[in-house]
Amino acid sequence: MGYTAEDEHLIKEKWNDLLLSCTKVCKNDEDWNFIKRAFFLAKEAHEGVRRRSGEPYLLHPIAVAQIVIDEIGLGVKSVVASLLHDVVEDTEYTVEDMERIFGPKIASMVDGLTKMSGVFNADISEQAEYFRKVLLTLSDDVRVILIKIADRLHNMRTLGSMPLNKQIKITGETIYLFAPLAYRLGLYSIKSELEDLCMKYRFPQQYAEISQKLQESEAIRQEFIDKFNAPIIAALNQDNINYEISGRVKSIYSIWSKMQRKQIPFEEIYDLFAIRIVFKPLPFPSEKTQCWQIYSTITDIYTPKPDRLRDWISMPKANGYEALHSTVMGPDGVWVEVQIRTQRMEDIAERGFAAHWKYKQATISQDEDEFDKWLKQIRSALNSPTENAVDFLDNFKLSLYMSEIVAFTPKGESRKMPFGATALDFAYDIHSKIGNSAISAKINHKLEPITTQINSGDQIEIITADNARPKPEWLEIVTTAKAKQAIKSFLKRERQNNIERGMQMLEERMNSLNIKLSGRVLRKIIPIYDSNSKEELYSKIGAGIVSLDNLDKVLKTNSKNKILKFWTLFIPQKEEEEQEDGGNEIAPEKETETPSAPQFQIAECCKPIPGEKVVGYRDPATGNVIVHKATCDELNRLAAQFGKNIVKEEVKWSQHKAMSYLVTVELRGIDRMGILLDLAKIVSDDFNINIREINLHSHDGIFEGGISLYVKDAESLHAVMDKIRKIKGIESVKRTIS
Ligand code: MN
After folding, report:
1. Is the whole model's pTM more than 0.90, yes or no?
2. What pLDDT, in 10s, does the model give residues 70-99?
3. Catalytic residue at 90?
4. Is 704 a residue of the active site?
């Protein structure tokens, strides 16, 4: 079953088109032969196979090669790899065959493409895991990704012949992965087309409505554009500039997204189009200067909106985009966006990364560095074994789509950050060491919390402290993948260190008590210290949350004591009071926990600490006793509604003070030099209390903030609060539930 005459005719037509485009890239016979050999091999390999639409399969690789050359601007090797891209996957040929016939470079490109489609064809329901795999196959050779995008674009253009379930799968992948990827690689028109095609298949009705409305308003719009352009054309002609001016209508998808985002009808979208001026610059002065000259000409005619000036020339976008954007007040009181760029910038905007090669020698551009940086970032993210697939993907998407801001170091070095980044992200962007020890930031010379979101143009100095440590909450503060990963790996490392330190501390303490640290001993003390595993216990000891000062007493506790889970709470039980064994050693025991032993849980709403008067509430669902402060409102509510569940007996804290409790104290006062130091001194020196976090910020001479501390009981908390109250400038000190 070979090719019919009609097939041959179709193929010949498309092949000739491709050959015509190849004149742009083929330099010698060798190049031509290379492409022809690939074509004939593909033709033979796909013989007899048809696409769902009925046309010969071969038309697909030809079309992909055509996109690769015309719309992305790649060269001979990419054309060859495009022609062969489905050969290994769909036919008898192997990668080894490719290497033998076309050499190692082509073989590795085809291999990369095969692996990528292997992932896409796999029937995996977990989308996230699936995309992670796709990304893992992102080859070192960017051309493989670009060819894959071309492949996807052609499949999207011919999606109509696919059954609905396939359409849903393919559009899902396209909108989630390929469109952002195309954007990140600077392929603006491909990105827009992919989005429009997705919308066309997924939301056909809305797509049709918007495109109809665009058509209906076309004449009026053109009339307006002509009116707007007329004085600009006259002025530019007078300046002898070689330019083209056009009105660019927004893509249907982006109009629709805006309607969704802003919840407005089509009629209320005022920036439906932009005016684009593309010019061929003179050799002198610089391109940038010439762009600004045109800007000046235009703003002599129309008044610019000052906050809508975007200079992507001095500071190109990370995907290489360069242009000058300005919004001016046009006729009839309508704001109009004007984009000014040179032909070179236009090529880059249209064809993205590939166009850079063309201009590489001609201009000193940092864009490729930018791209390399991005790819490096992706790779380092890929190499992180700790992240799960969903996190990874979120981070990845974040780094694909986020619009950018530019912030500066104290020395004036500029750094690109995604929109929404905080000072902490900035700290991590400089170096993970800076991030890990950051405590606050001076933003434009003003002290601000590390959590502050930064704006474009901010100059940021990160204040660090040697003893500062990342906290789990930081993961909520940062937005960049780099910072998230650094924090995660620090916390993981720290936990490991704490475990090791805690284990050592416990062993030493046991040694000094002359008791062997056996599994039985561990099983006894783990619940006593409110832990669920020995790792948790070690880590709490290592972090200083659990103190071993009373270990001897703890070990002496009657093993038959029913209150194990939360050892500091108990309900005195008159009849059953058991005699202590009297022995110092832990007696060999059977089962320690009787089924009736109450499990205590500290109420989240009021978080009582030892020394405070507490009341127990038996949770009917679990049988656990939830311990509230006697004054807790929630307890009152529960008592009113479910009075019978209130534990009749008095719940008491036991004598031992082995645990520390996290409390937050809120402070307010008059800002003065050295107040932080005074605070730290009081809290740490005087009471030997563990500070977890101090977070103070000041404005207009007032400071506010909180200290999180580990305290042993209410008594020591109140003592420290009294001391703090006496510090000069402090106005109010109160405990909060955080
Ligand atoms: Mn394909």
Report:
1. no
2. 888 888 888 999 999 999 888 888 889 999
3. yes
4. no
